[in-house]
Amino acid sequence: MTKELNPQAIHAFIEKPSLMRRLSFGCLVPILLAQGFWVRHAVPKIAEAKGPRHGVTGSGKPIRILVAGDSSAAGVGAPIQAQALVGCLLSRLAVDFTVHWKLIANTGWSTPDLRSFLHTVHKTSYDIVLTATGMNDITSRQSMAACLLEQIKLVKLLREKFAVGHVLVSGLPPVHRFPLLPEPLRGFIGDRAKRLDNAIQSWSREQPDCDHIRLDFPVSTGKMAPDGFHPGPGIYALWADAAAVVIRARWK
Known about the structure:
- The chain is α/β, with parallel strands linked by helices.
- The protein has one domain (about 20-250): Rossmann fold.
- About 45% of the residues lie in helices and about 15% in strands.
- The chain has nine helices and six strands; from the N terminus they run ααββααβαβααβαβα.
- α8 links the parallel β5 and β6.
- α4 packs across α9 (about 235-250).
- It starts with 18 loop residues before the first helix and ends with a helix.
- The model has no long low-confidence stretch (mean pLDDT about 90).
């Protein structure tokens, strides 16, 4: 039986920031707000990857896969879906599986946005869901507890509506190493990303149907999208490699 989380215990999964860290970031609020405004308006907007968002590919054991999330799931930073997360994952699984797949993703979606949309989707069943969401949560004013709770609610919805057998929860990227984000904003968002990522991983360990995918990949300028914020095709390939290893371990 899948272990449900008592909402009262949510804080047990979240690292508490030190007093010094809280005071440091608190003193920087005006700078952080100004830099956040600059990033939102100065960073170039990149289109989602082009290509189909559902289909069947490969040969072998049939599996049903849903990839769901925000702009990274939608493939922002790759020109076509074949070079984005879903396409890279399909190319790795098609050797061993007949994959019936669907992509549900949109730039700007927070985890609550994704959940709201999934409520409108026709009820069906998936063997595997790979989620990619959370960045738009940590850049909002939500607390760490609220961000983690949204991830848990998303997994609960996937279980109940889509009868998912295996949820791969992608972690947060290493924002603290994003080359084009200015300091101290990079450090602030990076700290939130690391704390939420660790919390998701801790919670996932207690769920027999969940695996956490840590996205600790190289983020040099050449591997990132031109906006310095989204993955490029090389990072999507590494992400898909990590997910495919976990899927094969459970489903081969």
